[in-house]
Amino acid sequence: MNIKMTPLLPESDAREAALFFVVAALCFLAVLATLVARGTYTAAEAWTAQVEGEMTVLVSDTDRRGAESAATLIEALPGVERAHVLTDEELDELLSPSFGPGGIPDGIPLPLLIAVDAEGDTTALAAEIDTTLAEAGINGRADTHSAYAAEVRKALGTLRIAAIGTVLLLTMTAISVIAFATHAALLARKDIVDVLHLAGAEDRFIARLFERRFWLLGLKAGAAGSVAALAVTAIIVFSAQSSNAPSELLPKLSLDQWDLMILAVSPIAGALAARIAARVTVGRSLRSSL
């Protein structure tokens, strides 16, 4: 005859369904915030790296042939990889965010811009370009885009702090919820705890019962949150891939190895947080009841 041992704590509790949902939702938000912050940071880093290697030279008081001559002079300078005068079509595409899909209205004079791809210190190169054009009698001014890149890098620092703060806030909220639920579960099973004490059970043994219970709950809830975050991220990735003109500044969610690592580690982190919260809560509650 097989005898099935009854666990000291019930295997399931209907009251924990709401706790599971709350912890899963918090894990989902924390993982999604981490992925979006990382994707935005990656996109901005790629954009600033590209911008810092580019320059724009505005030439005036000349025609297109003079601008072509200026581009030839610039391209001959050390550190310049390529220099070409932007066509009307390229200017129209460049200014379309300001003028809308209808393009630049007729009658508006277009500037003569030279796009320069450079390497090394663009600030020193800009001064050299200005000097070279002045010596050739061409009125031109080089813009290194450094001010735009500096603003983006400043925004990246703010984004990093906001992302870390958001994840920490969600983590502390989850720990607080689990601690409150652990204390409520301990009070609901006070008769069992009293019997265990009478039988000689130590507080560490009783704490391990609740630790295991909430460890499993945190692991399952964290896995559910990660799966939900994976589904949302996959939808965003596929939508971005199907878009004809994706924005360079939108989060680059690619589900690479680092994103998958974040998704894999999140359930374990949630389970550890739940276990630590249960251990601390039960230990304090049992000590205060002595």
Total number of domains: 2
* Average pLDDT: 78
Q: What proportion strand?
A: 5-15%
Strand order of the largest sheet: 2-3-1-4
Helix vs. strand class: alpha+beta
Number of strands: 4
Order of helices and strands: HEHEHEHEHHHH
Biggest sheet features: 4 strands, antiparallel
Quick structural overview:
The protein has 290 residues and is an alpha+beta fold. Helix content is 69%, strand content 9%. The chain has helices at residues 16-52, 64-75, 88-99, 122-135, 146-188, 190-198, 203-242, 257-288; strands spanning 54-60, 80-85, 112-118, 139-143.
Describe the protein's architecture and organization:
The chain has 290 residues and is α+β, with helices and mostly antiparallel strands. The chain folds into 2 domains: 173 residues, no CATH class; 66 residues, no CATH class. The chain is built from 8 helices and 4 strands, in the order H-E-H-E-H-E-H-E-H-H-H-H. Strands 2-3-1-4 form a 4-stranded antiparallel sheet. Helix 1 packs across helix 8 and helix 7 runs antiparallel to helix 8. The protein is elongated, with a radius of gyration of 31 Å. It starts with 15 loop residues before the first helix and ends with a helix.
